Amino acid sequence: MPPRPHRVRKAMVWACTTTVAILVSGFVLWPGAPLDLGAANQMESAGMYRHWNSGEVIALVRHAERCDRSPTPCVGPADGITLTGSSMSRRLGRAFQVLGMESTDVISSPATRTRQTAEFMFGQPAKTQDWLLSCGSELGETIKAHKAPRRNLVLVTHSDCISDLESQLGFEHAPHSQYNSSLFVTLNSDGTLQILGSIKVEDWQQALGPEAAKL
Q: Is the pLDDT of residue 19 over 50?
């Protein structure tokens, strides 16, 4: 005997409901992007200041606006950054100065755009290392090998490298980082890396609160 129409409809409704529930629960449990540290009080809530003051933070900074992909005038060579990018890099550097750079090392990718970004951020020639050009699956371990105890590490690098680390730490579907944005990671006492969050360059003023007057 063929199934009754109402039973078929009931089964179809049940199947559709179950599928939707699975998709919704997956969406909720599937972290799309790291915590937005630019929102009010998120720096404090994420423990950023505590970890930074203890020298436990790695910051991956994406280079400034590329000259070869913008109509904006260049600082210098076509493979470098724009004048707008240099201004934003200075602004970003001031934000890091507010955090405190006394116990912080800075390394840049050797590409012109990353070197220029680092130099405009911190006002001095950048120390460069080739591994920040193309990072890959071993990036986390390489970072740990270059981080000194009780010293923060700022890495001026590329969006693909930032995406590589996000993927390794559970955020494989995070959107590509924007120019001059920063991803903050802490090195835990057990040797594991943990993402604290990310922040866009234009959000530092809100994130720092009263300290933003120094920017």
A: no
